[in-house]
Amino acid sequence: MDRQIDGSNDRKIEGQRHEQRERRMNRQTESGIDHERSTKANVADDVSRSTLHLTDRCMVRDIIYLNHSIILKSKNQTVKIPVPASKSFGSKGEETSVSGLLNMSSVLVGYTDAAANAAQAASLINNSKYRAYVAAVDKALKAFEATNEWADLISALGKLSRAFHANAKFGDIPKPVTVAKRLSQCLHPALPHGVHLKALETYRQLFDILGRKDLPRLLYLFAVGLFPLMDHCGIKVKSELLNIFEQYLLPLGVELKPALPGFIAGVLLGLEEGTEFYDRSFSLLDRVQDSVGPEAYFACLWEAVLGSPSVRLPALMYVNAKFNRQKSMHDQEYIMGNNIDHMIAALCAAADDDGSTLVQRHLLDFLSSAFPLNSDHLVREDFVQLLRRCLFLVLRRDMSLNRRLYQWLLNRVGDSAVTGLPVAGVDEQLDTTFFITYALPIVRKAIEEYLKLDTVQVTSGLASWDGTKEHQMQYTEVRVARLLLYFMDRPELGSLFLEETLLLLLESASRNDIRLESKEEVLGGTKGLSTSIETINEQSRRFSITSKSSVSSRQSRLSILSVPEETSAEQIKRLEEFGKTINLLMNSLDVGFIWNFLERKLKLKSIEMLTDA
Predict the structure, then answer these.
(1) Rounded CA gap, 515 and 240, in Å?
(2) Those residues with Cβ within 8 angstroms of residue 102's Cβ, 6 or more apart along the chain or in another chain
């Protein structure tokens, strides 16, 4: 009887153990799936915004940890990498071993096929000496967390350098994301050049370890710190940085293309005339162009101009130096890159640049030489976008900019010097045929597009206490009126400008007046504002569009309305500013200009109506 009871108890215990084993296996399977999600999340947290996620840069679709193995699922195949027990990876246990493994080696990072590197990854992960290498690097990286001054950074970099030097035989960089982040932090502009030089020495070590084969795969990590350095480093650091560019990056050739915009931007920052680095940087850029091809090179250059304001001046200097004015654009089409829209966007960004006027000088030099307004390399819309920005450069009151703009508008490329073109007064020998035929229609369209913006943000002439530029909002019709007033310094051009754009300006201003008038009528029931025709009629006798009495009466009427105070005050301010500017413009014109202008417009309109009939 006792034996039967003992046997039944044994069967119960065995059944309970079997159920426990099944539950344990189910939990392992579920934890494997959870590891896949948590691993990707942990890796993504370690990668900065400027880099891509690990699983995106690899050709791996899924990463699963199950039964002491990493399973890499790519598009075409599945590779299983056996790993040692979790106790080999520290006290955190199995729950953290996967993210540790993925961040352990640079073999699993980058854009190469992980399946092809599975054998190498397995051999490294199972190597006890390699795990000791990982521990040494991890210990050196933790030293950065306890730094209090720049001397501590040099000490931490020394420890990291010694760890790499002692284990260079593995040809691998453990924890590449963290290493790249720490090195990038050591290149901060506020740190002395001694720290910069020590960091560059460590970069050299890493590039030697990776070699020509693996460097392109991880370059996107190390470029974050290297490429912006040229803008704020000392002379010794610049020389060492150029040495690294020439020794390690230039030989990559076409494999440099993914990082080419940043690399070009980094070298362009050293292109300063009068310095010892000008010729060296120029030569390096030429060699890069030869290695990747001129079309791909200039496409990346325009991309750098578009995204980095600091490189616009040296980039345009380089483009002007490379553009041969003795040849036609047909023979140098590679300068436009492989996407004309990107080039136009970059040129527009240079025109909008609120920094040094040298940027716009080199821009106008390039436009007048490469793209006259009758060029067939750009479409009309491209010229409209460029002129919409370049026309308003005259408001910067820079004589050299004005000469270059007139040169482009008049197609005076053959002039021996830009200074031969006057910026004010009357030039009786000026030939306006090209301007009337090609430039004027584009100018009209550019002004029309500009007025649609309603308001624009412009840089104030005054800088704030910390040296940053202040911006202010201005009304487009006010800026157009100022533009026309400024062009009247050249009557033979200004009168043509005025003839084509004045009606557009008045129509835009009248729409603002009508909006304010409708609010008065709906909310206050008072008498509406005078129409634009009545305003012109009144002021053609007195050379003024808006009088002080009309503004004061408008303010008094609005004060009794239930119109929101901000809205009404803003509209009054807008009309006042336009009134002051248009008064100055009208006073600069001949007596009766408005009536003669309207007469010509009515005749043209009547002819059009008769033609249509």
Answers:
(1) 63
(2) 39, 43, 54, 63, 108
Cα of 57 vs its chain's centroid, Å: 22
| Cβ atoms < 10 Å from Cβ of 361 | 20
Each as own residue / partner, the long-range contacts of residues 569-573 (CB below 8 Å, 24 or more positions apart, any chain) are: 571/512, 571/515, 571/516, 572/516
- Residues 356-401 have pLDDT tens digits of 899 999 999 999 999 999 999 999 999 999 999 999 999 988 999 9
More confident residue, 279 or 509: 279
DSSP string, 366-405: HHHHH--TT-SSS-HHHHHHHHHHHGGGGGG--HHHHHHH
| C-alpha closest to that of 483 among 463, 461, 500 | 500
Neighbours of 23 (CB within 10 A): 10
pLDDT exceeds cutoff 60 at 78: no
- Tens of pLDDT, residue by residue over 94-139, are 333 444 555 566 665 655 555 556 666 667 777 889 889 999 999 9
Largest CA distance in the chain: 131
CB proximity list for 590: less than 8 A, separation 6 or greater: none
Whose CA is closest to 545, among 589, 515, 608?
589
**Could you give phi then psi for residue 293, rounded to 5 degrees?**
100, 140
Q: What is the pLDDT of residues 240-263, one digit of tens each?
A: 999 999 999 999 999 999 999 999
What CA–CA distances, in Å, run from 601 to 111, 358, 594, 608?
64, 40, 11, 11
Dist CA 253 CA 288 (whole Å): 7
Question: For residue 278, what are its two tokens?
Answer: 């000008």
In angstroms, the CA 192 to CA 126 distance is 41
- Give, for 473, the enclosing helix (H) or strand (E): strand 469-475
Task: Report the candidate in 177, 183, 213, 220 with the shortest Cα–Cα distance to residue 198.
Answer: 183
On whether the CB atoms of residues 156 and 26 are closer than 8 A, the answer is: no
Query: Quick check: helix, strand or coil at residue 331?
Result: helix
CB 423 within 8 A of CB 490: yes
Average the pLDDT over each of 216-225, 453-462, 477-486 and give the range with the smallest value: 453-462
∠ CA(46), CA(49), CA(50), 5° rounding? 110
pLDDT at position 588: 87
Structure tokens that stand for 37 in this block: 């999600």
Q: How far is CA 563 from CA 475, 487, 524, 577, in A?
A: 21, 38, 8, 21
| Cα first-last separation, the chain | 121
